[in-house]
């Protein structure tokens, strides 16, 4: 015969969390009763509290929110947005359309912010080891390419050349925050030097710091671990995904694929088929 208390303890300790304390009539996030948070913290502040366990200052929250706002959408040419709209024409619900899009945010589409943050943190480690900024960036890029190949995440854009209009504004806000002492400015220096070095390596042709490179600066300045850059981007892009899925549902249409029916994919016959 089992002990009822030990069974109850085993069930209670199956999951362990410091995020939420909940029982009948009580909900507290990170030690803060939900009724004290409602109406007193913004959604970005709530994200920060849930993920990190503390509350950001007003200036930290404003910079964090700017990064979230900047990444909400990039139109149906973005695979995740297109996938959400296609899913919506298949008769699924909003949650299914949103999940379809978020599940496409992988290493190639949606993961560049995490990868760029890893690059920045690696360069920061070299600075702490005594290297100068230029040397740290050059060796950091060499290390990056040795592991990941020639494409440097966070820089360059297939549409926005030579400037991604989101990045300069975000970097301006970082510099303003650094001037106030909200952040150090270290990662802004790193990001801008990476951009300059990539331009020099291209024979002086400028290259855009894209949304991933700029938001990675902010997330690193605020102390978020690199993997959270991807999760935070998923939260941000989910806003655009929701908007596009809802718009498509209201526009109607059934089974819309990636191109109009009058355009067919190229059939490439193999030798055995001829």
From TrEMBL:
Pfam family, any one: Citrate_synt
GO biological process, one term: tricarboxylic acid cycle
Listed pathway(s): Carbohydrate metabolism; tricarboxylic acid cycle; isocitrate from oxaloacetate: step 1/2
A GO-annotated cellular component: cytosol
UniProt-listed CDD domains: CCL_ACL-C
Keywords: Acyltransferase, Transferase
Residue numbers spanned by region Disordered: 250-274
InterPro entries with a match to the protein in the record: Citrate_synth-like_lrg_a-sub, Citrate_synth-like_sm_a-sub, Citrate_synthase, Citrate_synthase_sf
EC numbers for this chain: 2.3.3.16
Family stated for the protein in its record: Belongs to the citrate synthase family.
Name listed for the protein in its UniProt record: citrate synthase (unknown stereospecificity)
Organism: Aliiroseovarius pelagivivens
